[in-house]
Batch of 4 targets.
Target 1
Amino acid sequence: MTPSEQPPDQPSGGREPIGWSVLVREALRDALALILPVECAGCQRPDRTLCDECARSLVSHTSIHSTPQHLRVYAALRYEGRVRRVLLAFKNHHRTDLARPLSVALLSALRRALSESTAPGGASGPIEIIAVPSSKTAMRTRGYHPVGLVLKTAGVRHARALRVAQKTRSQKMLSAEERAVNVKGAFISVRSLAGSLVIIVDDVLTTGATLDEAARAISAAGGTVIAAATMGFTPRTLAVRDIASGEGYGMEKGAK
């Protein structure tokens, strides 16, 4: 991502400047709202896809976490409040217009994962980005793969190397132990990953069970998982595995 090269507006009369670009953008937003009514995904404010305050809540502050199998996870945002409502709107209510701001947050976490992660034993080679797959049912319901869409919007190429191998229950009401059992054997690689270094990407980290299962499937295909990156993490007070990792609070996610 590169910062805008447009020069800043010049101050006038000692007041905060308002550039023509801002005025035009606001006018276009107001005109579009008359044709296609929309509300802010984070706070339901009318006539805005994402209001300024909710947009600020999506500015990444990447934190580091660990799954039960000690996979290092870089998470862009805390999955609560406005962030949670935005992600749910994107995943479950067809708000694909939110892919752009979410891609900026995810890209921040992914860049840090790429810059800080190393392979065991000092192995080197090309790094593949592999997204946790959605089930066929979820794809039919949504019509898109949320993580894949965000990666595409961010301009990040990712390998479709995993597929769902068996149905699982919803993770929402399960304990950490139940989640791990529920997703065991859920994924399989569609090709050999021998010699590949991999960073897994998913949407939200809650317990780490889904990421650990994805890592297992990748390892079974010969790949080496060096890290994971997610758009968000669920804060969990005094989660020992997070304190041990040196940063952050919480873990992984529900059903895909």
Target 2
Amino acid sequence: MIRQVKAEDAAQIASIYNHYINETTVTFENEALSYREMKDRINAISTSCPYFVYEENGTILGYCYAHPWKERAAYAKTYEISIYLDKNATGKNIGTKLIQKLIEECKKINCHALIACITAENEGSIRFHLRHGFKQVSSFKEVGYKFNRYLDVNDYELLFH
């Protein structure tokens, strides 16, 4: 089931995200987040932006959210999105359900463009976003540094007309 995030979800969400911090180049964060840090992030985003979890039998298997892409007023209708799944929950259509819900909610808040910033070597995420209508709009060479190497980042955009 997809539902609105709650502050109490912070521990499970941190566990999902910390796997990506510690084991992958999907995120460029280098330090695992505590329950408190994740709870603060959830509260900061979910009070004004769409933020959802996918839950089965009390266990969160994935989450997604949108937040303003930039601070300037000219970007007010552009949001950046994030979506993360439990490492054991991939390939079960959970990501598709989450992103469809997120896109639907972003349309309701009069969003015009969604941006997904993806590490260039994250081929699974790239294919996923392309399948859901996103188009590559930029490529930045060696802008991230993690695990002792430089990484490229691509931006993907979905426009609502």
Target 3
Amino acid sequence: MIKISKNAQEYISRLLSKKEFNTHIKIFVNNPGTEKASCGIEYIYHKDITNLEKKIKFNNFNVYIKKNDLKYLKKSKIKLIKKNFNFELMLRSPYIGVIKKISDLEQKILYFIEVNINPFLISHGGKLILKKINKKKEVLIEFQGGCNGCSMVSSTLKNMVEKRLLNNFNEISKVIDITLHKPNIFSYY
């Protein structure tokens, strides 16, 4: 999945040794699957880790990645480079940008969700991910974060998600929420 060079692992360990106990590394992705895709590395404190992240263990530290970002980070490499008299971590992710041709219906819907739906949901601590498009052209989606278990999710599905997707993609027949909704402390309402 993600390879971190030996030098980069040693460097990360040194950085973490200067941080609060139980500080780890998080790799994040912005605008995945789009032409504006970018990724980066930051610290994450143990108290901020949720069940939305996957833990990858290394010798002296853990790396956390949001589960729905994993597909964009496959075959990623982190290495240590020397720039002038400083050292920097360089993260290369070959699959972070457009994964399929933009003409592909799934890619168009992924992009539409990231640009037109998720910015609103993120303001409530939630996110929508496209799980798949079946042979009947039904779009199967999953709500995450603050949307999972939210009492307003059926309204959000009908009045925003379904309405926008059906109005913008006449190829699709239906939008189906396959989320196993469980109200929790992150649920918005």
Target 4
Amino acid sequence: MAHLLRRLLSAGAPCDDVVAAAPRVSPREVFRRFWPYTRGGRRWLVPLVLLSLAAPAVDAAELWLFKIVIDDVLVPRDLRPFLWIAPAYLGLVVCSGTLGFADDVTSTWVGEHFLLALRSDVFRHVQGLSLGFFERRRLGDVLARVTGDVDAVETFLLSGVADALYYLIRLGVFLGLLFCLRWDLTLLSLLVVPVFWGCARHFSRLVKEASRERRRRSGTLSAIAEESLGNVVLVQAYNRQGWEAHRFERENLGRFRAAMASARIRGVYGPVVEIIEVAGGLAVLGLGTWKLAQGQLTLGGLLVFLALIGKVYGPVHGLSGLGTTFYAASASAERIIELLDQRPQVTESPRRGGGAPGPPAPRRA
């Protein structure tokens, strides 16, 4: 059974190594290399943290109003508290929407500013490399690194870190509220957390290998397409269309296999996590129902507690899933670092007067 699972999660048989895999790099080295590119957007990190703190607090207030509606309005059938609950809930919804808008705009600005600086620097670096580099490397693969791989680095360094911080803040807020409601039920719900981390650790290794192969195949595919279409005159002159099409299809199949391996891994990971969540929720529901029957817990308290468990399991699920996101993005970061580590074989000596020479002046007629 284990051997069958490994075969299903594998990236398939290897094809021709048109583009070699990039050297492996540790996450710490990735942060060290790319963190300077966040300089322009660092002043917005504090507002992002404040927005991350405010959003779960508003969600917790909405759930607490839900508890009041059940215990003070529905159960006693008294509509008087609803007169202040309705406008308060409406105000919280408006506040939540405003915070979400501000968070989306700010985080997008920071991420796009990072991409603007990194992509421009990578392009300038590639332009300064010697001609021997372009003779050894496939141009399509270089283009894939400058475009798609740079986007994945932003996911690794900014979006992923911001999501991790957001999940941690939500986890802290909702856990604190759960302990205030029922500490014993909270401890029972946390028994499944180590299982979350164990599954995430196992599947993250599989995702990293599949993602690294997928990014390499994407570069290979771009390289073959650029090479074939760039020499289409020679291809047609020597009647090599069929051979080029077969070559492209072979590498396209390799990328397909890598993408399917990644999809199978995520497809298995999702149901496993859902089973863990349901097991924890059912355990809490059983004990909570017993306490409700004993008069130790109100109906509103039990329903809000179950809703808060979903709010807690969501960040736990997100944090465990971020490992797969980080590993997938690290494959692209390795390709960018390999590109930035290339040095020109011949360097020009600095000219007197500083600066590069301008374009030649036009001749007078």
